[in-house]
Amino acid sequence: MQEAITQLPLRLTAGPGRYWYVPTTCRYRTDDPYAVTMVFEDAAGETRWLLSRDLLLAGLERPVGDGDVHIAPARIGETMITLSGQEGIALLHTATEPLARFLTDTLLLVPLGDEEHHVDWDAAIAGFLTT
Asked: What pLDDT score was predicted for residue 44?
C-alpha cells in the first residue's frame, strides 16, 4: 500500500468576515483508491470525512456534489468545500493549488480508471458479509 499525504490550509467561514483556520490533513491510500480522507483538527479533537477523489477532482473545475458534500471553484485560486452533517454545515475554503497538487500525487499512484485494480475485492466482500 502506498499513500499520499498533505496538510491543507483550510479556512472555516463562520459568517461575513468571520473565519478561522482549521489544520487539515488529506490522506489517500492505494488500498482505498476511490476515497480521500480529510482529517480536521480543533480543540475538541479530530473529525474525519471520507470524500470521493473523483468529486474533489471535478470540483476543481465546476460545482459538483449531491447530498452532504459539495465542491466548487470559488474566488480565483480558491476551492470551496461544503460539508453538511448532523451538527450543521461547514463552509470551507482552500487554496486550489495545494489541493490540485495533492490530487495529482494521487493520480500518480492510481490513475483514473485504474482504481478497481487496487481494491482487494475478496476482503471487501468478506467485510460486507461479517457486518
From this structure: 82
Q: Which residues are CB-contacts of 99 (< 8 A; sequence separation ≥ 6)?
A: 8, 26, 56, 60, 79
Show the low-confidence residues of the chain (pLDDT under 50): none
CATH of residue 85: 2.30.31.20
pLDDT in the model for residue 60: 97
76 is in which domain, residue-wise? 3-130
Concatenated DSSP letters of the chain: --EEEEEEEEEEEEETTEEEEEEEEEEEETTSTTEEEEEEEETTEEEEEEEEHHHHHHHTTS-EEETTEEEEE-STTEEEEEEEETTEEEEEEEEHHHHHHHHHHHHHHS-TT-GGGGS-HHHHHHHHHH-
Please give the tally of structural domains in the chain.
1
